[in-house]
Structure to design on (535 residues):
């Protein structure tokens, strides 16, 4: 074993053993030490090997860097077959119990108190300090790194493309434009923008949009905190508000469509007719732009403090990517959702159970509140993603969800779902998903998804389960019926229950239970008619 330092590094060369003639390449040890505050460091292997030594020679060993890592033959494949040995005094110790918190506590190991990329100048005798008890983890374990990613859709007015329009010409020909162009981040840019907005008769936001378009990478003045609004609410309003004509170069292009064409509107008592009473709006997003930013990460505990991704450089920007795609947005009838929530105590009980579990779970702070409305929409999004993947040929990871189940600042509730294909490649940008949202076709797709969700191959165990999945944060939902790819779900594949969709026998009242009952009647009636026609 070798303790590697930056002084030993050679450009374009991997680390190599200095004690061997053939100089084989070194590989990092597979275990690291971390704490819930996000610190990460190497295990003190010399301390590990000498801890518990009984002979005086081993206790007083001065050579702490002459170590060997040995895999014992014939000892099995567990940690008991791996040991650290001091070549100077001969003391050794296996890795048995290395991942146990009790072992670390008994050894009184201290947290490194820093990140691997942080340089500590020990000449001033000031060492990093952290009171958190560390744990030893495998270097590739999933709990070494919990990323926190935020995403947002590009929506109007920023998404609207304007090239040399009348408003743009009026702004760029204004006498104060030269002042903004010379110093877009200067102290006089804000007042100049307000003055131009009053002169040409438009909003300050429109002027800022023109500044971004005309000056390229130079950014306009940042809006004040009072202008900041909830991103989810802005996206919801952008979808439910019809747009006028849009340039093909805009990054948010939507089109409102009916669930059924006028000539094919179903009977009110049929399954499709009842479904139409539960769906409020259907919006086809022929072009979407999504920005995903890494805001930080935590270690060991997903709910722990976030570590900034700037490697301690105090940067004012975040690493992010932009992806383009298309999608289908639809909202449920708010009156029917409110009645369903208020009139069924069994529905409220499901929300209460999952919300209690969410609050106690270590990732609960990163999840949305488990209201019956949210669980309903989340489960519906999952079964629809599975149906679209099966029906349209999309890969399971190419579809994503966005759930709108909160409230606007004025208290107006939301109940909508966006299924989109921002996958970072050409798949899902050729109109395939948008076509599934066209009149009549989307209704049949949605009905098929509900019918498939009404029965799971693991039923009745799945539907009647008191808790399953990660931390028992799901009820009637498993891999056979409702779970999707981790990259497709924005809520870690939890807070799901098919019972709120289709109902359970003598239990939960499903929001779409009447639709499914009508579908079975329609199917039976069609079968009878076919038999009569054959006879």
């Amino acid at each position: 074993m070798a303790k590697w330092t930056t002084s030993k590094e050679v450009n374009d060369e991997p680390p190599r053993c200095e004690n061997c003639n053939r100089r084989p390449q070194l590989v990092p040890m597979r275990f690291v030490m971390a704490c819930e505050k996000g610190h990460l460091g190497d295990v003190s292997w010399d301390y590990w090997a000498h801890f518990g030594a009984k002979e005086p020679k081993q206790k007083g060993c001065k050579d702490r860097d002459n170590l060997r890592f040995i895999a014992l033959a014939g000892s099995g494949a567990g940690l008991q077959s791996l040991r650290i040995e001091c070549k100077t005094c001969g003391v050794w110790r296996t890795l048995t119990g290395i991942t146990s918190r009790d072992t670390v506590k008994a050894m009184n190991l201290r947290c490194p108190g820093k990140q691997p990329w942080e340089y500590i100048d020990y000449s001033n005798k000031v060492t990093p300090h952290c009171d958190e008890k560390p744990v030893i983890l495998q270097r590739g374990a999933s709990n070494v790194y919990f990323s926190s990613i935020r995403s947002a859709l590009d929506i109007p007015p920023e998404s609207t493309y304007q090239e040399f329009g009348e408003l743009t010409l009026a702004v760029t020909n204004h006498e104060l434009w030269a002042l903004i162009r010379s110093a877009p981040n200067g102290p006089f840019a804000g007042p100049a923008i307000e003055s131009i907005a009053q002169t040409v008769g438009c909003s300050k936001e429109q002027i800022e949009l023109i500044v971004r378009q005309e000056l390229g990478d130079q950014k306009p003045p940042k809006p004040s905190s009072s202008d900041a609004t909830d991103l989810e609410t802005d996206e919801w309003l952008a979808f439910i508000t019809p747009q006028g004509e849009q340039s093909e170069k805009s990054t948010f292009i939507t089109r409102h469509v009916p669930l059924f064409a006028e000539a094919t509107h179903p009977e009110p008592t049929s399954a499709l007719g009842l479904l139409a009473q539960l769906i409020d709006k259907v919006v086809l997003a022929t072009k979407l732009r999504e920005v995903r930013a890494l805001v930080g990460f935590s270690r060991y505990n997903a709910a722990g403090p976030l570590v900034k991704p700037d490697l301690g450089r105090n940067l004012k920007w975040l690493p992010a990517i932009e992806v383009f795609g298309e999608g289908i947005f639809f909202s449920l009838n708010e009156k029917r959702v409110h009645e369903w929530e208020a009139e069924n105590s069994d529905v409220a009980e499901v929300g209460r159970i999952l919300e209690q579990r969410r609050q106690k779970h270590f990732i609960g702070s990163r999840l949305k509140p488990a209201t019956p409305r949210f669980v309903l929409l989340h489960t519906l999004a999952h079964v629809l993603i599975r149906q679209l993947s099966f029906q349209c040929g999309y890969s399971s990871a190419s579809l994503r969800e966005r759930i709108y189940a909160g409230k606007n600042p004025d208290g107006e509730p939301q109940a909508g779902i966006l299924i989109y294909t921002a996958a970072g490649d050409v798949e899902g940008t050729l109109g395939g998903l948008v076509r599934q949202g066209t009149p009549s076709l989307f209704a049949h797709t949605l009905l098929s998804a509900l019918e498939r969700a009404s029965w799971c191959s693991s039923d009745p165990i799945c539907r009647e389960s008191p808790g399953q999945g990660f931390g028992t944060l799901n009820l009637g939902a498993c891999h056979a019926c409702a779970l999707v790819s981790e990259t497709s779900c924005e809520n870690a594949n939890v807070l799901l229950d098919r019972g709120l969709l289709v109902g359970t026998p003598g239990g939960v009242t499903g929001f779409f239970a009447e639709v499914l009952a009508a579908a079975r009647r329609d199917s039976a009636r069609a079968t009878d008619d076919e038999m009569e026609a054959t006879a």
Notes: The longest strand covers residues 279-298. The radius of gyration is 30 Å. Residues 359 and 365 are 7 Å apart (CA to CA). The chain has a mean pLDDT of 84.
